[in-house]
Amino acid sequence: MELLNGKEISGQKREELFEEITRLKNNGITPGLAVILVGDHPASRSYVLSKQRTCKELGMHSVLTELPESTTEAELLARIGAFNQDPSVDGILVQLPLPPHISERKVIEAIIPEKDVDGFHPLNAGKLFTGDPAFVPCTPLGILEMLKYKNVDIKGKRVVVVGRSNIVGKPVGQLLLAEDATVSFCHSKTNNLAEHTIQADILIAAAGSAKLVTKDMVKQGAVVIDVGMNKVDGKLCGDVDFEKVKDVAGMITPVPGGVGPMTITMLMNNTVLSAKRRKAVKGAV
Ligand SMILES: Nc1nc(=O)c2c([nH]1)NC[C@@H]1CN(c3ccc(C(=O)N[C@@H](CCC(=O)O)C(=O)O)cc3)C=[N+]21
Fold first, then answer.
1. Residue 127 annotated among the catalytic residues of the structure
2. Is the domain defined by 26-113 classed in CATH 1.10.8.60?
3. Minimum CA distance residue for ligand 1 atom 22
4. Which CATH number describes the domain made up of 138-260?
5. What residues does each domain of the chain span?
């Protein structure tokens, strides 16, 4: 079994990004990310701070807007509108989940697609579907980056995705389909889940259910990607029963230290990409 070490792989990618950002800054372009956090969900706060820290480390411009739980939808939409217009901001991320009185759909659609570094806007989601990708969601992109870094064969392979969220499950399936994998989607209503997962050459667990994937569900030598971020007895735990599955998997991501750090790195990647595109449109690059 080989560990897919997200910290190590993302460290490598961050070095490349740092060099690229330095080059851009020498040309008068500083990529900028605006993050908006509504309410005080403790996990969200720590993820957002981690995004801010990474921006700083890479020498990017970053703005954090923390708004109270009581913020109205109109107020949040107005903040997004201001960042849409702000030339120093290349990427806008509104941390999900939002309080129940705010429509996530409206918020996502309010971000101009050119600054939607999360890749959640329906235009960007549609472009991934049609094979004309603009911004690809960060977790799927991070997964692809890890597979490529380890030279994992994707073409013609069987990929099974467990989970069908708009943020991970659906886009990661589309991304790997575009890499010529044979992709199946499983979810909470799938009959005989193990019958599907056991066939996977690459198994992606993104269902949000702690230790859902057990040893008997994994083919010998399979590449297992664990996207789960579950809190069990105060401890972070993935969707895969790592301690047992590691004995059958060919490669496996740990939680923490797997997909999570890659997600943040690809957010930086998308912000840099946005800065380059936006300045190119204006003729600066
Ligand atoms: N608009 C939006 N975009 C997101 O990308 C987004 C979001 N909302 N809402 C929440 C989820 C979750 N998410 C994580 C990113 C990194 C780690 C991460 O780096 N985790 C570390 C440590 C985690 C820990 O120790 O608590 C690891 O896995 O090693 C986790 C979770 C981004 N999300």
1. no
2. no
3. 256
4. 3.40.50.720
5. 26-113, 138-260
Closest CA to 38 of 77, 76, 11, 90: 76
For the CA of 120, the nearest atom of ligand 1: 1
Q: Do domains 26-113 and 138-260 have the same CATH topology?
A: yes
Residue 134, CB half-sphere, CA atoms under 13 Å: how many? 20
pTM: 0.97
Distance 192 CA to ligand 1 centre (A): 30
Instruction: Write down the catalytic residue from 90, 118, 201, 226.
Output: 118
CA–CA dist 82, 65 (Å, integer): 12
Name the residue with the closest Cα to ligand 1, atom 9. 96
Count of C-beta atoms within a 10 Å radius of residue 233: 5
Distances (CA, A) of 11 to 4, 130, 236, 270: 13, 31, 21, 16
Residue matched to tokens 């806008």: 92
pLDDT tens digit at each of 285 positions of the chain: 999 999 999 999 999 999 999 999 999 999 999 999 999 888 889 999 999 999 999 999 999 999 999 999 999 999 999 999 999 999 999 999 999 999 999 999 999 999 999 999 999 999 999 999 899 999 999 999 999 999 999 999 999 999 999 999 999 999 999 999 999 999 999 999 999 999 999 999 999 999 999 999 999 999 999 999 999 999 999 999 999 999 999 999 999 999 999 999 999 999 999 999 988 877 654
Is 208's C-beta closer than 6 angstroms to any atom of ligand 1? Answer: no
**Annotation-wise, does 165 bind a ligand?**
yes
ipTM score of the complex? 0.97
In the residue annotation, 211 being an active-site residue is answered as no
Q: DSSP labels for 9-71?
A: HHHHHHHHHHHHHHHHHHTT---EEEEEEES--HHHHHHHHHHHHHHHHTT-EEEEEEE-TT-
